[in-house]
Structure formats: structure tokens, C-alpha cells
Amino acid sequence: MTEQRLPRWPAAFAGVVAVGAAIATGELAAGVVAGVPSPVLSIGRLIVDLQPAGAKDIVVAIFGTNDKLALEVFVTLVALAIGAALGLLALRRLGLAAGVIAAFAVAGLIASLRDPDVSPAFAALAAGAEAVVGTIVLRRLLALTPASGTEASPDPRRGMPDWTRRRLLIQGGGLAVGSVAAAAFGRSLLEGQRAPVASAPLPDAPKPVVLPAGADLGLAGLTPIVVPNEQFYRIDTALIPPNVDVATWKLRVFGLVDREVELTYAELIQLPIVEQYTTIACVSNEVGGDLVGNAAWRGVPLRTVLDLAGVHANASQLVGRSIDGFTAGMPTAWVMDESRVPLIAVGMNGAPLPRAHGYPARLVVPGLYGYVSATKWLTELELTTLAAFDGFWIPRGWAKEAPILTQSRIDLPRDGTAQAGTVPIAGVAWAPDRGIARVEVAVDGEWREARISTPISSATWVQWRYDWAAIAGQHTIEVRATDGTGEVQTADHSPPAPDGARGHHTIRVTVS
């Protein structure tokens, strides 16, 4: 039989199903056995680590907080496309195709070894199982193709059905459905397996923070002054939040210090506890975007812990390290400035720090974008110099020093429509840790001052409102803020990279 007579789509179908079965084997094993890595997450994390400059900006701009799901879908689709090519290769060289499947399993194994939750032995066994399952499924389905010679070909002149292809579709389809179910079940088990059984109790704050009167304007549809935990944005490099056992967790402080310090969680929360509202923001936030939020953070002042170690005068950079290897570096002078209170936070909005937001401890540093400060799942603090080390995002094209810019956003009216009459134009504005002194709104180019809510502190955002006498027609609405230093938000637009988006948030509204 010549190569020209060999069917192509059945072989490609067989390759797709085989690779899908191999992936499902790994996902199921990861959920059932602690220490086995998810192949999709392992490759996804490798892509995150190897991404070129500017990639984060593009992905977050397109997918926002769904960036991790988008990456997992991308990894899966690319793997299945490779599977289709392997199926075609297997028509001529089945052994080589099987070897490529094994090579990909080994690549996934190598990529997974940086995950602190992974057992190398279990990971190697799982990789072997993935390769074996993928190869067996590929062989089995290829044997059902008309070219295999194992089934009688139909006689088209007599209208007989092609039973071979039907069996291929039935068995392949069944395996595909089973693979999807197994992978989904494994992922659900993995999520539960990596979640702490119970959070450590939240330590009491001697002076819990209370919102001042007028801090929230109480306008329906306006972003609340305090964002609930479940609605708070999440941008980080962890495809699944790490599982941290608070009973064995330790925080190490080292580097350019008088003495190295190591604290257990119990020892950490015996230090003075404070609570404060702080607005944090992601540098990838576009003008008018929602990758910003305000919460009540409870924890230990960062300087209290640094003072235990004794920071050297030449230590110009503080580097926070996550348990999953992520690093963020910030100027030591920023965190040592008495005008602000950086925290090692263990609580958020009156509850233990959620796993997705860094349980059991994370950094919250007023005034700095998260990529240079807000280390989640914190495990180490290193004192070094600005020249000696670059945090995770710096080699990927982002600025090394990144104060949060003065920004404002329009929340209302929504959907670009309004009825004639008095229409509230409202939103939020922030400039941590300088505070907001003034917000102005322009309707069709005419600037008017808006009313702002009572500021909680200079480290938090405010709500603002302007009651507009709307008339029928098309209108352009623009907002700008002035921070506590008197600096007016620039109208010049720039993308998020390398140090934050600039420009006025502008919307078009149709009034009827």
C-alpha cells in the first residue's frame, strides 16, 4: 500500500485523541496522588517564565483576570495540534511518533521540577504513565483506520457503511469524552488537594479600622469603596495557588542584615498587629480598567520584622520571594519611609488571607505597583542592592521602580446609554500613597469639579460623583484627578508597559 492511499484525517484524529488521553492521565494522577504535577500547569508555568518582553501586557489586556485560563486553553490546543501531526507521522513511523510522545512527557517532567509541591519520583512515574497511555491509544486507534488491513473495506457500489471508520469514531470519541471527564475530575481534586484544610485563625487587631462617615457614596452600580474578597482582582504567575502548610511555614530574612531572622507563623503573629485600608493596583491595568482594588489588610508592619534583622545602610533593595519562586524587588528607602506602613499581611477584609491572595502571608506596600512589591505566598525577604538583583518582571521589559500613577475611572453611566434628565456620572480615583485632592469631569469638553467621598487615608482610593443635566444626543465624558501633591493626571496616553498606563478615561454616551 502506497503512502498516497493512506487516510489522513483518521490518523490525525487518532493522534489528537492519543495526546488528549496522555494529558488526561497526567491531570488525573495529579489530582489523585499528592506530589504528581499537572502537565498542563507545568508547561504553562514554563511559558510564563520564558515569555518575551511585552507578552504580559498583551495577554492581560485581552483576557484580564482570565489570563491563566487562556494560557491553559492555549497549552491544551497546541498539544492537541501536535497530536494531529503525530498521528500523521505515525502512518509512516509509528515508533518515532511514540518517541515524540515520550519526549514531550519528559519535557513536562523537567518543567514540573521547579514546583515545590512536586515529588520528583512521583512526577517521573506519572510522565512514564502518560507516555505509555498515549502510545497505546495511538496504536489502538491507528489499527482501526482503513489502511490498517484489520477491517474489511466497504463496497461503495453496494452502499455498505464504512464500519471501520465508524468504529474509529465511536472508540476514539469515547476515549476523548473519557479523557475530558478524567482531566476535569483530576483538576478538581488537585484544586482541593492544594487548598489548606483550614486557615490559621486571624489575629486580633488592637485598633480595627473603621470607615469614616461619607467614605462610601452609596450609589448603586458604583464600585464599592471596599472590594469584597471574592471580587478582588487577581494577577500573578501562579496557575494554581500554592498549597502552604502554616504549621511548617517560615519567613526568612537575610542578606545585608546584622543577623538572619527566621519566624514561624505563630511567632510572626505574636508581633504587633495593625490593620489599615490600602488600595493596590496591577501595572497591566489599562486606562479605565478594573485591575485595582481597596481592602482592609491586617498584619505585621514590615519594618517591625526588618528591624529584628537590622538592615545595613547599603541595602538599597528589598526582595520578596514567594514559595513558588516568584520575586519582587522594591527600594528599601520606600518601605523604610515612616510616612507609609507596608505590611506583611495575614488578613483581608476581616478574614484570614484567602489562598488566592497569598495565604498565609503576603506583602502589601502602599504606593507601589504589585509586580515590584506585592509578593504573595511570602517565604523570604532578602536585603540586597538595586544593582545586584532584578525581580521576576524586570528582565521581561518592565520598569524596576514603579510608583502607582494618579488615575481615575468612570463607572457610571454604564453601557453607554442614559435617559435625559439628571444623570449621575461616577467612578473611583486613586493615587496611593499621595491621596486624591480633586476630581474633575468634562462633558463635551467642559470641565466641572465632581464631589469626592471622604478619603479613608492617603493610601486609598476615593469615589467621586457629578450630577449631569443630560440632554438628548451623543456626548463625550472624560475624567481626570489631582493627587495630594497637586499633580494633575496627564491626558497623554501611554500603554501599561513599562511603568503603568497613562491618560484620561473617556466614554461615549447616548442620551435619549
Radius of gyration from the alpha-carbon trace, in angstroms: 28 Å
Q: Order of SSEs, N→C? A: HHHHHHHEEHEEHEEHEEEEEEEEEEEEE
Number of helices: 10
Q: Major sheet: order of its strands?
A: 2-1-10-5-6
Taking the alpha carbons of the first and last residues, their distance comes to 72 Å
The biggest sheet amounts to: 5 strands, mixed
Number of strands: 19
Shape: globular
- Poorly predicted tracts of residues: 1-6, 148-161
Estimate percent helicity: 25-40%
Give the integer mean of the pLDDT values.
91
- What oligomeric state is this? single chain
* Beta-strand residue fraction: 15-25%
Main structural class: alpha+beta
How does this structure look, described?
The strands form four sheets. Strands 2-1-10-5-6 form a five-stranded mixed β-sheet. Strands 3, 4, 7, 8 and 9 form a five-stranded antiparallel β-sheet that branches. Strands 12-19-18-14-15 form a five-stranded mixed β-sheet, with no helix packed on it. The protein is of the alpha+beta class and 512 residues long. Strand 5 and strand 6 form a beta hairpin. It has helices spanning 9-32, 39-50, 55-63, 67-92, 94-112, 120-142, 163-193, 265-268, 302-309, 332-336; strands at 250-255, 261-264, 274-281, 292-301, 317-322, 327-331, 343-348, 351-352, 362-364, 378-384, 407-412, 417-418, 421-430, 436-443, 446-449, 451-452, 462-470, 473-483, 506-511. Helix 1 (9-32) crosses helix 4 (67-92), helix 1 (9-32) runs antiparallel to helix 6 and helix 1 (9-32) runs parallel beside helix 7 (163-193). Helix content is 31%, strand content 22%.
